[in-house]
Design a protein that fits this description.
162 residues, mainly alpha, 6 helices
Length: 162
C-alpha cells in the first residue's frame, strides 16, 4: 500500500523523482545509494534525506527525464518559507507583547506611586494591586515568548531543543 506523502516535503519530492525516473532503482543509481536508502528518503517517518549534492543530482535527473521544476529544491524552499514565517510571527508577537507589557507596567507604577502620597484611599491600594497583578501576568507572557529566541529553541514554540 502506498502511504500518502505531505506535499512540499523531501519525502514527497523523492517519490516524485523516483516515479519520473522509472522507480527507486533508477533514483538510487543517480544518487549512488542503495534502493532501500532512497526508499527511506521518501518515507516521512525516517529523518534521513539526500545530501545537497544528491538532491542536485536527483533534481537534474528529474528534469532530464522530462519533469518540470526541481522537486527537492522546491521542497527545501517551502520548508525554509515555513521556518521564516514562524520566525517572523515570533517577532511580530514579541513587538505586541513588549508594547502590552510596557503599558501594563506603566499603569502599575503609576497606580503604586499614588500610594506614596499620604491619605491614599483603599480603592487606590486595590487598584495598584490589580495593576501590579496585570503587569506581572504580561511580564510572564513576555518571558515565555522571549524563550523562543534562546539558542536551540524551535521557532513558534516555547524554548527547547530542536
Amino acid at each position: 500500500m502506498t502511504r500518502p506523502r505531505t506535499p512540499n516535503t523531501s519525502g514527497h519530492a523523492v517519490l516524485r523523482i523516483a516515479a519520473r525516473l522509472g522507480g527507486f532503482a533508477a533514483a538510487a543509481a543517480v544518487a549512488r545509494r542503495s534502493e532501500r536508502c532512497v526508499r527511506d528518503w521518501s518515507d516521512e517517518a525516517t529523518p534521513s534525506c539526500p545530501s545537497w549534492a544528491q538532491a542536485v543530482a536527483l533534481d537534474a535527473a528529474y528534469r532530464a527525464a522530462g519533469g518540470e521544476g526541481a522537486p527537492l529544491y522546491e521542497a527545501y524552499g517551502a520548508q525554509l518559507d515555513l521556518r521564516f514565517n514562524d520566525l517572523t510571527a515570533c517577532h511580530a508577537a514579541l513587538a505586541t507583547n513588549l508594547a502590552d507589557a510596557s503599558r501594563e507596567w506603566g499603569e502599575a507604577i503609576g497606580a503604586a506611586t499614588l500610594l506614596a502620597v499620604p491619605g491614599f484611599s483603599p480603592n487606590q491600594a486595590l487598584t495598584a494591586d490589580i495593576e501590579l497583578d496585570q503587569a506581572e501576568t504580561r511580564l510572564k507572557g513576555l518571558r515565555r515568548l522571549v524563550k523562543r529566541f534562546l539558542p536551540g529553541a524551535v521557532p513558534g514554540k516555547p524554548g527547547g531543543a530542536q
